[in-house]
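Please decode residue identities from the backbone states below.
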């Protein structure tokens, strides 16, 4: 298995299962409805904000991989569209899962030489650095979602 294939497997594990953590976005969010996802708990981010935020960076990386453009800014990474219905929530989830799979497909097609090239100039490190960073970042937020569910008593 190549390094790129391993990274793609880790990303899929994070979103669809199969990693040693035994939790993933699909499993964790399957029983969360739109009202729960948008409910504010104290001063913490909502579940929808965290889901949008994690997908924001997947979309940023997809843009570099597909179109060789980077038009993301951290200051917009929590600015999700309104979620006013279950349909809105399900559309966001579907988009997130589709983006995660597309991202994994594009990663696994890369060769090792391409993985270590600059992601977007030398400011952001290599593709490898960015992929590992995204996986770590999204695991962190997966943990936050898990804790929010417990605090809000979402079974």
């Amino acid at each position: 298995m190549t390094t790129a294939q391993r990274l793609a497997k880790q990303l899929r594990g994070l979103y669809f299962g199969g990693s040693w953590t035994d939790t993933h976005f699909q499993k964790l969010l399957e029983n969360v409805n739109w009202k729960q996802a948008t409910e504010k708990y104290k001063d913490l981010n909502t579940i929808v904000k965290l889901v949008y935020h994690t997908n924001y960076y997947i979309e940023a990386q997809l843009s570099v991989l597909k179109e060789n453009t980077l038009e993301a800014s951290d200051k917009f990474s929590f600015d999700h569209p309104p979620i006013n219905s279950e349909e809105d929530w399900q559309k966001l989830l579907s988009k997130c899962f589709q983006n995660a799979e597309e991202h994994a497909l594009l990663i696994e097609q890369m060769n090792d030489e391409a993985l270590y090239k600059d992601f977007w100039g030398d400011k952001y490190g290599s593709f490898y650095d960015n992929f590992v960073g995204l996986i770590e970042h999204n695991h962190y937020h997966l943990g936050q979602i898990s804790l929010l569910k417990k605090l809000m008593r979402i079974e």
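Observation: The mean pLDDT is 95.
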